[in-house]
Automatic annotation (TrEMBL):
It holds the Pfam family TTL. Belongs to the tubulin--tyrosine ligase family. Polyglutamylase which modifies tubulin, generating polyglutamate side chains of variable lengths on the gamma-carboxyl group of specific glutamate residues within the C-terminal tail of tubulin. Preferentially mediates ATP-dependent polyglutamate long side-chain elongation over the initiation step of the polyglutamylation reaction. Preferentially modifies the alpha-tubulin tail over a beta-tail. Required for CCSAP localization to both spindle and cilia microtubules. SUPFAM superfamilies: Glutathione synthetase ATP-binding domain-like (SSF56059). Transmembrane segments: none annotated. It is found in: Cytoplasm, Cytoskeleton, Cilium basal body. This is Tubulin polyglutamylase TTLL11. One of its GO terms (biological process) is microtubule cytoskeleton organization. It catalyses: L-glutamyl-[protein] + L-glutamate + ATP = gamma-L-glutamyl-L-glutamyl-[protein] + ADP + phosphate + H(+); (L-glutamyl)(n)-gamma-L-glutamyl-L-glutamyl-[protein] + L-glutamate + ATP = (L-glutamyl)(n+1)-gamma-L-glutamyl-L-glutamyl-[protein] + ADP + phosphate + H(+). Residues 345-368 are annotated as: Disordered. Keywords: ATP-binding, Cell projection, Cilium, Cytoplasm, Cytoskeleton, Ligase, Magnesium, Metal-binding, Microtubule, Nucleotide-binding. It comes from Physeter macrocephalus (Sperm whale).
Length: 545
């Protein structure tokens, strides 16, 4: 998961969806991956500037592996990118900078929202009802060459702003440099903002983002766990960083796989002397997230009382006293294992899982052992709103196909045999498309695929280890079939190239060699065989036949 939400991988995953559903995925700023797409970035910016000379964009450069604002800088022109040395060794994403964020008290802020990915198959997503708003500590001005380096003005990272003299620790959840998101919504609501709409836009952003990320996750999961067998399944608490634009449109900044669950902050008592003090706002939000996660992930609902012993309960707040809460939470966090055993393939609305209404009654103090717990903070949004979003799960369906034809378990590479089986099962091979043509098609897709990703030694459609910044997710290989017009008609178009081969008995495809100009199948011993090359129309042709 950590790898899936790295800046480059996230950008790629969202971009695939942006290509398919541009309207639905316009919540993510246009991004380019560096160094690979540097020329593309330069060319596209130049093109837009030529068309509209009044366009004065700003871009934000973020190192792929960076976090907490590390290595981030703003630029006004592609030529300002610090290419020398660092980019090659430290790939990055360059992104359109959102110049008009919503300001509160003249300050830019972002939202950290906690999302529980409870299950991949079936997909279950929960969103915390409250989140954190992290404020900059210098009044915001639109980017200008003179203020681009003002990190306290442009970057909302807590880890940076805490070092500003203007950082305000507050005992209240609605003031200071870190507040609850609900307090912001309250304030917006008092100004007449339709906060229901804000929430529904945010929920939609979260669901769409998860839909973009899950196909590849499922391929990885499936390669490890045999299908249909009970096995460990995983859950993950994700931290979504969201920026509200001036017009209240939410923009996804990034997704954190390991969001900080600290509920205390460092305070400098006297110069050089620091102390950890409880942070009310962190507690308010994070304790509830952890509590509900434990509650939801406990498949047997056993020993629930032990999670939050009664002695901890403070009647007024239905919460333990702060100091006890701190130690109790630490204890629980230390016990919190991110990987839990759970039965695979449980029906979605399993009776064991409390639906929303059950949880609500528990929080209202029903007979359930949870009756004394505070109200629910994690709300299910998927499959609850599945109907509205299922049409976006196209890549997911491609991942299903990919997984189905993977062949040997443990592999993440669709080999030539799996590809043949796929063609056969889809009945594409009946009629005009011979198996030899299928092999050629396989070689072509592999060649195109590999030229898009890292150069691999061997053949195979890969899910792309997302572990490399240049790799792309597997289902994209399937997208090739669509995006390059690989319909049955087009497949039949390969016939001409394939016919001379079809006369021969199809053999097991062999390892591909990369020559300077094309992929070649090495000749069988002692026999002259044609190579394959690219024709003028970009289609694969058989040479020497
Ligand atoms: P990191 O993982 O290092 O925190 P982020 O992507 O969260 O990186 O970016 C850090 C901060 O930069 C964000 O919290 C936000 O304030 C600002 N930021 C990031 N991307 C954009 C953007 N496209 N437009 C405006 N501000 C941004």
């Amino acid at each position: 998961m950590t790898e899936m939400v790295r800046k480059i991988t996230l950008s790629r995953a969202v971009r695939i969806m942006q290509n398919l559903f541009p309207e639905e995925y316009n919540f993510y700023p246009r991004s380019w991956i560096l160094p690979d797409e540097f020329q593309l970035f330069v060319a596209q910016v130049r093109m837009v500037k030529d068309g509209d000379p009044s366009w004065k964009p700003t871009f934000i450069v973020k190192p792929d592996s960076g976090c907490q604002g590390d290595g981030i800088y703003l630029i006004k022109d592609p030529s300002d990118i610090r290419l020398a040395g660092t980019l090659q060794s430290r790939p990055a994403v360059v992104q359109e900078y959102i110049c008009k964020p919503l300001l509160i008290d003249k300050l830019k802020f972002d939202i950290r929202l906690y999302v529980l990915l409870k299950s991949l198959e079936p997909l279950e997503i929960y969103i915390a009802k409250d989140g954190l708003s992290r404020f900059c500590t210098e009044p915001y001005q639109e980017p200008h060459p003179r203020n681009l380096h003002h990190i306290f003005m442009h970057l909302t990272n807590y880890s940076l702003n805490i070092h500003s003299g203007n950082f305000v620790h507050s005992d209240s959840t609605s003031t200071g440099s870190k507040r609850t998101f609900s307090s912001i919504l309250c304030r917006l609501s008092s100004k007449g903002v339709d906060i229901k709409k804000v929430w529904s836009d945010i929920i939609s952003l979260v669901i769409k983002t998860v839909i973009a990320l899950t196909p590849e996750l499922r391929v990885f999961y499936q390669s490890d766990i045999p299908a249909g067998r009970p096995g460990p399944t995983c859950f993950q608490i994700l931290g979504f960083d969201i920026l509200l634009m001036k017009n209240l449109k939410p923009i996804l900044l990034e997704v954190n796989a390991n969001p900080s669950m600290r509920i205390e902050h460092e305070q400098e008592l006297s110069p050089g002397v620091f102390e950890n003090v409880p942070s009310l706002v962190d507690e308010e939000v994070k304790v509830a997230v952890i509590r509900d996660t434990l509650r939801l992930m406990d498949p047997f609902k056993k020993k629930r009382e032990n999670h939050f012993p009664d002695i901890y309960m403070d009647r007024k707040h239905r919460f333990p006293p702060v100091s006890d809460r701190m130690s109790s939470l630490k204890l629980q966090l230390s016990k919190l294992s991110i990987v839990r055993s759970q039965q695979l393939g449980k029906p979605l609305a399993s009776k064991e899982e409390p639906p929303d209404s059950d949880l609500a009654s528990a929080s209202a103090g029903g007979a359930s052992p949870e009756g004394h717990l505070p109200s629910i903070c994690l709300k299910q949004v998927f499959p609850k709103y599945a109907k509205q979003f299922n049409y976006l799960r196209l890549v997911d369906r491609m991942a299903n196909l990919f997984i189905r034809f993977l062949g040997i378990k443990g592999t993440m590479k669709l080999g030539p045999t799996g590809f043949r089986t796929f063609i056969r099962n889809c009945k594409l091979s009946s009629g005009s498309l011979s198996m030899a043509a299928v092999d050629i098609l396989y070689i072509d897709i592999t060649r195109r695929w590999n030229s898009m990703t890292v150069v691999h030694q061997d053949s195979g459609l890969r899910p792309g280890s997302s572990f490399g910044p240049r790799c792309t997710p597997s289902p994209v290989a399937w997208l090739f079939l669509r995006s390059h017009g690989w319909t049955t008609t087009r497949l039949a178009g390969l016939r001409g190239a394939a016919q001379p081969l079809s006369a021969r008995k199809p053999r097991k495809p062999r390892k591909l060699l990369w020559t300077r100009r094309c992929w070649k199948v090495p000749p069988y011993s002692g026999r002259k065989e044609p190579g394959y090359g690219l024709g003028n129309n970009g289609c694969l042709t058989a040479k020497g036949v």
